[in-house]
Amino acid sequence: MARAAGRSENELLDFSANLNPLGPPEWLRAAISAHVSSLRHYPDPDCTELIAAAAKHYRVEPDEVIAGNGSTEILYLLPTVLKKSRAVIPVPSYADYARAASQAGMQIQTVSLEEELLAGPLTPETAVFIGRPNNPTGQVYEAEALRGLARKYADTAFVIDEAFGDFVEDFDSLTRRRPGNVVVLLSLTKIFATPGLRLGCAVAEPSVIRRLRERQAPWSVNTLAQAVGTAALADAEFLARTRAYVREQREALASSLQAFPALTVYPAEANFLLVRLDAARLTFAGVPDGVLHSGNPEHSPATVGAMSPSAAPAVAGILAELLLQQGIAIRVCDNFAGLDGRYFRVAVRTAEENARLVAALDNVLNSQPAHPAVPPVPLCPSVTAPAKRIGRPRAAAIMFQGTSSNAGKSVLTAALCRILQQDGLRVAPFKSQNMSLNSFVTREGGEMGRAQVVQAQACRMEPDVRMNPILLKPSSQVGAQVILMGKPAGNMSVGEYVRFKPQAFAAAKRAFDELAAENDVIVLEGAGSPGEVNLKHHDIANMAMARHAAAPVLLVGDIDRGGVFASFVGTMEVLAEWERELIAGFVVNRFRGQASLLDDAFTYTQRHTGRPVLGVVPYLPDLGLPEEDSVSFKAARSEAAANGPDGAGVDIAILDLPYISNFTDFDALRVEPDVQVRIVRTPEELGRPDAAILPGSKSVAADLAHLRRSGLAAAIGDLVAEGRTEIVGVCGGYQMLGSQIEDPHGIESGDRIIQGLGCLPLATTMAEEKTLKRAAARHVVSGLAVEGYEIHHGQSTMAGPAQPLVIRDDGEAIGVTAPNQMVWGTYLHGIFDSDAFRRWFVDRLRVRRNLPAIGRVVAAYDLHQSFDRLAAVVRQSLDMDRIYRLLQPRSCVCAAARTMLTIPIRPSDLPMDSSWPKMR
Is 47 labeled as catalytic in the residue annotation? Predict the structure, then answer.
């Protein structure tokens, strides 16, 4: 089918195979990996552990169970063991019942599903083969009726195939209270979505089981199948979740299909639906007008099949169009006895896949559904319904995830944003959940992560809280302030936040859907690693978000740390199958050397994972872009130049704090050629700089305690007394410089009053409401305009001899200075981003060092030049042709609008030679 569709097998959406839509259980790969070493031995020929697990699961004795290489193996052995001459088979039914009986020389008699089951007497020479649920109708025979029938005809053998019984809620299996002449066939590969593994079993009388084992080939069930089956039979939670999910999706899919006038959908209880095409109601180019339908839609499939003219050409046309145009395969049922070419069967798959089928059928049938059918919200968190489009086709999406934190996801996201923006696309960044103390305030007064602000700048877009709908700001080792859609939702412990996550994730998905409706492409960033097994069951930042966004994932690894290829392989090993399917390839980041030296490693990685390496990005020092989080800041080496630089410039020390926030406030100082910026953690490293800056803090009380314990508080006091070092505080650092902080509501501390460093006559009270605003202001001493943003609970007032220093445009003082101007502070984040003010500040430090003031701006803090440099390198480092192919959203079909997104590529972006037509 894949060859006929001109696609790879992985690109085919197969509705012809009736497997668990949730895919295999997450433990499957681990179970297989744990038993690979056992493959050096022959498998247990008696399947001891597997038989014991099956006996416990089906509540029978071990000698009543046989395991096989799929239940089909046992089906083909049964006629030779039962020694019956006649097979009675209600039809339509699974074709292998008749094939297995025929191979054993049995005479075949078929009866309609509508007939009273075998109205005539059943002889001792008869074996009855019944699918329960029936394949292809999905209907279930009443268990008690079958038990009664079997007891009535005690010499007749009844083979009951319950291969799909695990999908039926409240299923009354014949394995319980089983009459002695009943054999129950059971499949473990359909419910656990492992048909390639081949595993089934049967429950029957011990005498039947013994004869089956005598005829069974030795070592029929391999080692891996035995291990998986043993684990599967103990997983009651997976079975229950599957049944509930299948019921929800079957009902939704049936409702959607019934909305087409040309389709009749038969009620079912299994994980598939039988559908009939009524040609008289069909608007389809391939069907002649004279094809009519005379059957009663209320009749059973078998009855209608016997009465009505065939509409096989129409179904064949639908099959061809679905396969060739959409890559969707359905099961035409013309080889089922009692059915003809008008019937087809479709599996119940995920909500998104079912929606794709409905949209594709809508296109093929060329008729409007009678009513819109929206799949329900799935029960499984890993599966999501397709997002609603708002006014335009939904954006394509691609996602960077990492093998660890600080692998370079944020920078690569910014780089790809700028590349796509350069190529003429409207692109936006997105990170559903960010944990960072480095935040920003939008024009609307919403708080969001600084990394997504940088990415928005790469897109040349105004930052929008929808780009980072959830921001976690750690306030202790076990808790954080939760910012939801830009506003505080409360301080939560880990447990409290886990319970809040469903609500937060719903908001994040809405935010993504809105952005996706307004842009051409969304570049998503994950958080941490998708392979963190302690978190992934409730993770909302990585694979669950990628699934909702229909985003192929590029997994980024930092080769500079070492072990990058092991990290790629290891991450893939701990992912569930549905998560692995989302991984499109790997990106090696921060490589120092010649990329061709990695070819053997690329081959090894692809052999183990089935995924290619799609790029090698070189180590890029001095990007000139803000860091994504404090990991790099914390890892920075402190140069203990206690006496400052060698006379060529000025020395500025930034004090590191345990709960430092908005550390990027000082990135702009690094662009000045005559400034050395140092990160200091001890009094010895602090020395006597020209300026010492206390940064923002998420927990002022805790960081003040740290300053006192480390001796830095005393060292700052000494610098103030000496009067040679300018002391600056920003936001939390500003509050620390004051005399006291009152916290009546316990916002940051259990202590009502906290003593500050006493360097400024300033009193601060923590308010319940957080101040969040963009601000334009004037720096009084220099007379220069400055701008930035405020994020603080504290409200500060002068409590002694001090002077307003930073005056907001509305007249409120958001910064003060000591009379000698050697100690000052402000609530304005980003004050040093202003080129003119930053040069004035540095020049004042130069004059104190007896260096001449430069008096003019010598360095511009311009991120756009940095973005363009970064984009140029990353464009050359990534396989951009393959990335553009990944952006073609073959799964992003909108059932409402029935549209597909086409990525607009400008001719000027393509090489104008003979190669360009085949590239795009």
Answer: no
Distance CA 581, CA 209 (A): 40
Measured CA to CA, the distance from residue 519 to residue 549 in angstroms comes to: 13
Q: What is the 3-state secondary structure (H, E, C) of 651-687?
A: EEEEECCCCEECHHHHHHHHHCCCEEEEEECCHHHHC
Convert the pLDDT of each residue in 338-383 to its tens digit: 888 899 999 999 998 999 999 999 988 864 444 444 333 333 333 3
Name the catalytic one among 293, 380, 829, 892: 829
Chain segment 4-63, per-residue pLDDT in tens: 888 888 888 999 999 999 999 999 999 999 999 999 999 999 999 999 999 999 999 999
Closest Cα to residue 398, out of 535, 568, 508, 516? 516
What is the residue-wise DSSP string for 846-892?
Answer: HHHTT-----S------HHHHHHHHHHHHHHHB-HHHHHHHTS-TT-
What is the token pair recorded at 529?
A: 């690693």
**Which amino acid, residue 826?**
T
Cα 743 to Cα 450, 771, 835, 849: the distances in Å are 27, 16, 36, 40
Tokens matching residue 725:
């070092």
How big is the CA angle at 908 (ends 902 and 912), to the nearest 5 degrees? 105
Confidence of residue 312 (pLDDT cuts 50, 70, 90): low
Burial letters 750-789, b for 16+ CB under 10 A, else e: eeeebebbebbbbbbbbeeebbbbebebebbebebebbbb
**Residue 903 pLDDT > 60:** no
Number of neighbouring beta carbons within 10 Å of residue 187: 22
Closest Cα to residue 448, out of 421, 482, 418? Answer: 482
| The residue to which tokens 């302690």 are assigned | 534
Catalytic residue among 47, 333, 417, 731: 731
Q: Which of 734, 738, 723 is nearest to 665 (CA)?
A: 734
Check if the beta carbon of residue 446 is closer than 8 Å to that of residue 433. no
Q: Please give the DSSP secondary-structure letter assigned to residue 390.
A: -
Domains of the chain: 2-16+240-365 (3.90.1150.10), 28-234 (3.40.640.10), 396-618 (3.40.50.300), 637-848 (3.40.50.880)
| Cα separation, 92 vs 388, whole angstroms | 39
pLDDT digits (tens, 9 = 90+) for 2-12: 888 888 888 88
Strand 815-817 with 613-618, pairing: unpaired
587 by Cβ neighbours in 10 Å (0-12 / 13-18 / 19+) ranks as buried
Long-range Cβ pairs for the range 534-543 (8 Å, 24+): 536/574, 538/381, 538/498, 538/501, 540/432, 540/433, 540/470, 540/501, 540/504, 540/505, 540/508, 541/431, 541/432, 541/433, 541/434, 542/401, 543/382, 543/401, 543/575, 543/576, 543/578, 543/579, 543/582
Are β-strands 157-161 and 126-131 bridged in parallel, bridged antiparallel, or unpaired? parallel
Q: How far, in Å, CA of 699 to CA of 750, rounded? A: 11
Nearest by Cα to 585 from 616, 556, 614, 605: 614
Is residue 372 within 8 Å of 237, Cβ to Cβ? no
User: Is 495 exposed, middle or buried, given 0-12, 13-18 or 19+ CB atoms closer than 10 A?
Assistant: exposed
Look up the pTM and report it. 0.77
For residue 608, indicate whether it is catalytic.
no
- What's residue 379's pLDDT? 31
Range 633-638 contact pairs with CB under 8 angstroms and sequence separation of 24 or more: 633/660, 633/663, 633/679, 636/679, 638/678, 638/679, 638/680, 638/681, 638/682, 638/685
For the record, the structure tokens of 367 come out as 């008729």
Q: What is the DSSP letter of 630?
A: H
3-class SS of residue 771? strand
In whole angstroms, give the CA distance from residue 536 to residue 401: 13
Alpha-carbon distance of 797 to 794, in angstroms, equals: 10
Structure tokens at 902: 């086409």
Residues 6+ apart with CB under 8 A from 320: none
How far apart CA 607 and CA 585 sit, in angstroms, is 13
